[in-house]
Write a structure and sequence with these properties.
By secondary structure, the chain is mainly beta. It contains 3 helices and 13 strands.
């Protein structure tokens, strides 16, 4: 991969976002980085459920329990995430591949069906996931056209254990194969 350009900085000015010289190589590098699959749900300002798949879910702290996820501000769910106080975060296993596909597909169809129910704060909670957590958004850090969202977890539950569902090379996969 071509080296990333050094950020330009003038004294007293903020660093400007930079693109790698070889954007294709940069994207390919992250396609090769397998990640766990999660779904984040929220309520729109009108009270309708919204959600999206996220491969950027990360534990931030155990005490207090906090997590982060990243998202593009151009995403269909961004308005809801930018204006709401609470989200539900779901971790998915191999049995949830179809739900992952639904939640990464047409945003108008993500809540059509019986794969979810209303949970705490009226949030959509997905059925039969390996774990779900509801938390209060405690920070949104905009970075260029994206944002890092920090959530303090307040409640949740564990589902049945399952094999990992991974996202790798633009496909959902099981360890050792394709889901």
């Amino acid at each position: 991969m071509t080296a990333l350009p050094a950020p330009e900085s003038a004294e007293g000015s903020a660093l400007q976002p930079q693109s790698p010289n070889d954007l294709v190589a940069f994207k390919q590098a992250f396609r090769r980085h397998a990640a766990g699959v999660a779904v984040v749900t929220a309520l729109s300002p009108d009270g309708d459920p919204v959600g999206f798949t996220a491969t950027s879910l990360s534990s931030l702290s155990a005490v207090p329990p906090m997590a982060t996820f990243n998202m593009a501000k151009s995403a269909s769910a961004w308005r809801a995430i930018s204006e709401t106080d609470y989200v539900a975060i779901h971790t998915l296993g191999a049995r949830n591949r179809l739900v992952a596909e639904i939640m990464s597909g047409d945003h108008a169809l993500r809540f059509v069906g019986d794969h979810w129910h209303a949970g705490p704060h009226g949030l959509a909670v997905l059925n039969d996931v390996t774990a779900w957590m509801v938390g209060r958004i405690i920070g949104r850090m905009p970075l260029h056209n994206n944002a890092v969202v920090a959530v303090q977890i307040e409640e949740g539950g564990l589902g049945a254990d399952d094999e990992a569902l991974l996202y790798h090379e633009r496909a959902y996969r099981l360890l050792g194969g394709t889901a």
